[in-house]
Amino acid sequence: MERETAVQSEQARLEALHSYxxxxxxxxxxxxxLTRLAASMFDTPMAAVSLIDRERQWFAGTHxxxxxxxxxxxxxxRYLVPTGEPLVVxxxxxxxRFRDYPNVTGSPHIRFYAGAPIVDEEGHVLGAxxxxxxxxxxxxxxxxxxxxxxxxxxxxxxxxxxxxxxxxDLGDELSRASQxxxxxxxxxxxxxxxxxxxxxxxxxxxxxxxQELAPYRRLIEPIHRxxxxxxxxxxxxxxxxxxxxxxxxxxxxxxxxxxxxxxxLKICRPLIVPRPETxxxxxxxxxxxxxxxxxxxxxxxxxxxxxxxxxxxxCPITIRTGQTPRxxxxxxxxxxxxxEDELPYVFDRFFRGRHARDQAVPGVGLGLTIARNxxxxxxxxxxxxxxxxxxxxxxxx
Length: 397
Fold this sequence. Notes:
Blueprint lengths: L1 H18 L9 H14 L3 E7 L3 E8 L5 E3 L8 H4 L3 E3 L12 H4 L6 E8 L5 E9 L7 H67 L9 H24 L13 E3 H11 L1 H4 L6 E4 L5 E3 L2 H17 L7 E6 L5 E6 L20 H5 L8 H11 L3 E7 L2 E7 L1
Parallel strand pairs: 8-10
Antiparallel strand pairs: 1-2, 1-6, 2-3, 4-5, 5-6, 7-9, 10-11, 11-13, 12-13
Helix pairs in contact: 2-5, 5-6, 7-9, 9-11
């Protein structure tokens, strides 16, 4: 039973060691620097960060040692793995364990060895940080303590290297996932838009047949209306999933901010009609801005639409334009608000908060993404602040 437990423990240790992904790779400069400092402090010609693999020791950091690795049968450091305690060998020629080692009887003629175990956060002994000399010597408890500190630093550096590698792998996977998402959206939007556009075209032809199709008018009109809605949704998806390397064009002329707001309110008219008395508009006179009218109106409409969807019909929504310190459009509501923990994610593509999900608010989570992209193409910003009593969203140009 003890042997089986020991085998399992060693297997777990080896799995932990390999998770650091430093074996058979170029030595990290930070570990070379650490061994150089250790050799300097202990006044030895050699030092190493030695990782104990199944049948070898791999030098993840070295000073004064030419080899990348050696077999375990000439390793001093392997004796630290079972004990997890520092090991000091004042004179290898007088130690029965090491005196016949070829690196003792021959080059580099090891005499002195001192090593401290490198222990990871899970308690696995990965190897040792050691200093090695060609002259016998003694060391005191304080120096052993210093060596333990160096080994602790090596463990921290190894953990940091593993974390960076994992983050890099995660970044690659996220990049691949993002590309798959872009490809999927592009495919879906293309496959939807093409047939729907074709259907819309045929419906327009049918619409010209006034007399022949008069009895079917009540059927054609809702088909046409829902077809336009579907095309609008596809365009919404395309606008919200534009690749980062395909930025929107900048503003191409000067327009009045009031004109932009009027266009945005027209886009939202179906949602405003049932509640005209609670939508309050305050204009700050003529505010000229350099903008693409249709795109900026689209951005403003996203803010207005959110306010209309998340605010009860009897609660006010205030829309303001202004020019101090810079031109802006602000939409403030007294709706259900945005939970504080969700505010950092409101601009993420396809993000839908708890309220949107719980209350089945229509949308795919792209409105604020689209607004931000358009604002940034106008060298502007979008900010969203929330409280339990409502939300304020502002586009500043």
